[in-house]
Amino acid sequence: MLKETVTYKDYNGNERTDELYFNMNQFELTEFAASLPDDLFDAITDTNDKQGDNSSMTIRVVEKLGRVGVIDFIKRLVLDSYGVKSEDGLYFEKSDEIKRKFSQTVAFDTVMTKLLHDDISAANFVNGIISSDMAAKLAEKRAEIATNQA
């Protein structure tokens, strides 16, 4: 689970600081990854990154998607991973209504602006949602599916 602390001015001009939570469980990540073209999936989950600073992953994704595609990808990842964590930590509620309401907030605009203008923040966000362990598992699962389809 990724926690982002965001400070912004709401629509009434009041300064707010919110803790936002983003998470995808293994099934959600598998479903998300399955919807990606193979070359984009490979660009995101390449665990042989020689630079080690996430910047090459960002460059690979931008090369595959182009700027408009990157915006759509990040928006989808943010909205699909956003949810409301229960006080006791047992539930992470997601729904179309929660997603819709969040997408209409200044907090969402703040998160998106940060991710679209700061490659390191974007890479860290992706890596926070898709850990290296999870990326390896997804790559294995994808290879298994491809082998079974052949």
Describe the secondary-structure layout.
Elements: E1 2-9, E2 15-22, H1 26-34, H2 38-45, H3 55-81, E3 82-85, E4 92-93, H4 96-103, H5 106-117, H6 119-129, H7 132-149
Question: Care to describe what's here?
Answer:
By secondary structure, the protein is an alpha+beta fold. It is built from seven helices and four strands. It has a four-stranded antiparallel sheet with strand order 1-2-3-4. A hairpin with a 6-residue loop joins strand 3 (82-85) and strand 4 (92-93). Helix 2 packs across helix 3 (55-81) and helix 3 packs across helix 6 (119-129). The protein is globular. It starts with a strand and ends with a helix. 17% of the residues are buried. The model has no long low-confidence stretch (mean pLDDT 81).
Strand composition percent:
5-15%
Order of H and E elements: EEHHHEEHHHH
Gyration radius, to the nearest Å?
Answer: 16 Å
Low-confidence stretches: none
SS-based structural class? alpha+beta
User: Can you tell me the overall shape?
Assistant: globular
Number of strands: 4
Q: In this structure, how is the largest beta sheet organized?
A: 4 strands, antiparallel
Number of H/I helices: 7
Q: Biggest sheet, strands in spatial order? A: 1-2-3-4
- Helical coverage, percent range: 55-70%
Mean pLDDT: 81
Short description:
The chain is an alpha+beta fold.
How would you describe this structure in keywords?
150 residues, four-stranded antiparallel β-sheet, alpha+beta, 7 helices
